Amino acid sequence: EPELNNKEQENIIRYAIGFTMGILKSHLGALDDLIDVMERGGSVAECIVAIESCENTSGATVMGNYEQIRKNNIQKNGIGFVERILLGGSKNANVQDMSVIEGKGGGGRKEGFQLTGDDPLYAALATAAFFLVYASTGGISLH
After folding, report:
1. How many CA atoms lie within 13 A of 121 on its CB side?
2. What's the sign of the alpha-carbon dihedral 50, 55, 60, 63?
3. DSSP string for residues in 51-103
4. Which residues pair with 109 in a beta bridge?
5. Whether the model pTM is above 0.70
6. DSSP per position, 29-62
7. Helix (H, G, I), strand (E, B) or coil at 27
8. Phi, psi values for residue 96, rounded to 5°
9. At what angle do helices 28-39 and 6-26 cross, to 10 degrees?
């Protein structure tokens, strides 16, 4: 079997991700049942049983668009502290990212505050100088 170069590997990964997203999107009901079992800490066997015994695999409902109903439930119930930190807080598909530069030559990100190069050294020296002045003016007593 011939070795794949980086571009071919990336193409296979992109295809696999796209295929997986399509399968998950068409089986939202099974995905929800799987999520329920995983949140309870179920075993792999219980996860398989949940997928195979799902009565509403596609998530079809008479209430409207099931995908939108799921999004509304997630937004209503919110996310936990850990998820908020790991996933970036309030960022989601419904919020416009204002840090992206749009228009001609766009696609980059607006620069924010960054400590680069010698900046951390200068910040440390400024902090030490501030602390020295604070301590020498009686801000700290060792009594």
Report:
1. 2
2. negative
3. HHT-S-TT---TTS-HHHHHHHHHHHH---HHHHHHHTTT--TTS--TTB--S
4. 100
5. no
6. HHHHHHHHHHHTT--HHHHHHHHHT-S-TT---T
7. coil
8. -75, 130
9. 90
Q: CA–CA distance from 17 to each of 14, 22, 87, 124 (Å)?
A: 5, 9, 19, 45
Q: pLDDT tens digits, residue range 45-70?
A: 999 999 899 888 887 777 777 777 77
DSSP 7: H
Q: What percent of the chain has pLDDT over 70?
A: 76
Element (H, E) at 16: helix 6-26
Distance CA(14)–CA(119), nearest Å, equals 39
Q: How far is the C-alpha of 33 from the C-alpha of 26, rounded, in Å?
A: 14
